[in-house]
């Protein structure tokens, strides 16, 4: 399996781990997944899950198995990660949009499949995007944009799955300030 083919699984796993992994690490892992660095993302993520005793659901373990290369020495760590369930969602507050957020809106508006952008605050700004044809690539682009605007640890969550968002992301979206929504095209 090539790096681009594994990017959706890595992206989905990191999205599900939002709120359970430190943001300082999460944005780097998302950057590696967006850039196709499967080896670094898989090795660091597996070791972090073990070190911090973060458990995974069966579905999350499957996503980790897709991320870690079959011949990698890290492969043995996948089975060592403990079983767990996602925590209950925390409460969030809104964040006032600024130049960085509005710049992100112009990037998201140009992304195929993007449906909406909102911003929330859980002690720091987090951009929430619903929909994208290539969520891992959009995440990488938005993280770089936030870094240019001075964010030391950019926080971006792009949910593009066909399944409903996790309770964590539902709570995050409910507390966020909407910035942009794609206007549906009428077929009259």
How is this structure best described in words?
The chain has 188 residues and is an alpha+beta fold. The chain has two domains: 3-80, no CATH class; 93-181, Beta Polymerase, domain 2 (2-Layer Sandwich), CATH 3.30.460. The chain contains eight helices and five strands. Strand 3 (125-130), helix 7 and strand 4 form a beta-alpha-beta unit. Helix 1 (3-16) runs antiparallel to helix 4 and helix 2 crosses helix 7 (135-148). The N and C termini lie far apart (43 Å). 38% of the residues are buried. The model has no long low-confidence stretch (mean pLDDT 85).
Note the main attributes of this structure.
188 residues; alpha+beta; Beta Polymerase, domain 2; 2 domains; five-stranded mixed β-sheet; 8 helices; 12% strand
**Low-confidence sequence ranges:** none
List the quaternary state of the chains: single chain
Q: How would a textbook summarize the main sheet?
A: 5 strands, mixed
Structural class: alpha+beta
What are the SSEs and their pairings?
Elements: H1 3-16, H2 23-35, H3 38-51, H4 58-67, H5 75-80, E1 93-94, H6 99-109, E2 116-121, E3 125-130, H7 135-148, E4 156-159, H8 167-174, E5 177-181
Helix pairs in contact: 1-2, 1-4, 2-3, 2-7, 6-7
């Amino acid at each position: 399996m090539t790096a681009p083919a594994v990017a959706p699984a890595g992206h989905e796993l990191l999205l599900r781990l939002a709120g359970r992994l430190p943001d300082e690490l999460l944005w780097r892992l998302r950057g590696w997944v967006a850039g196709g660095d499967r080896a670094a993302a898989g090795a660091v993520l597996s070791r972090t899950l073990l070190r911090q005793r973060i458990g995974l659901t069966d579905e999350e373990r499957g996503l980790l198995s897709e991320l870690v290369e079959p011949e990698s020495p890290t492969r043995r760590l996948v089975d060592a990660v403990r079983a767990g369930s996602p925590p209950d969602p925390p409460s969030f507050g809104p964040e006032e949009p600024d130049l960085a957020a509005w710049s992100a809106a112009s990037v998201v508006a140009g992304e195929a499949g993007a449906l909406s952008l909102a911003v929330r605050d859980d002690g720091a700004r987090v951009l929430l995007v619903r929909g994208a044809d290539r969520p891992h690539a959009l995440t990488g682009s938005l993280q770089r944009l936030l870094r240019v605007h001075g964010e030391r640890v950019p926080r971006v969550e792009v949910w593009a799955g066909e399944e409903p968002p996790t309770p964590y992301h539902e709570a995050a979206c409910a507390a966020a300030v909407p910035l942009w929504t794609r206007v549906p095209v009428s077929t009259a």
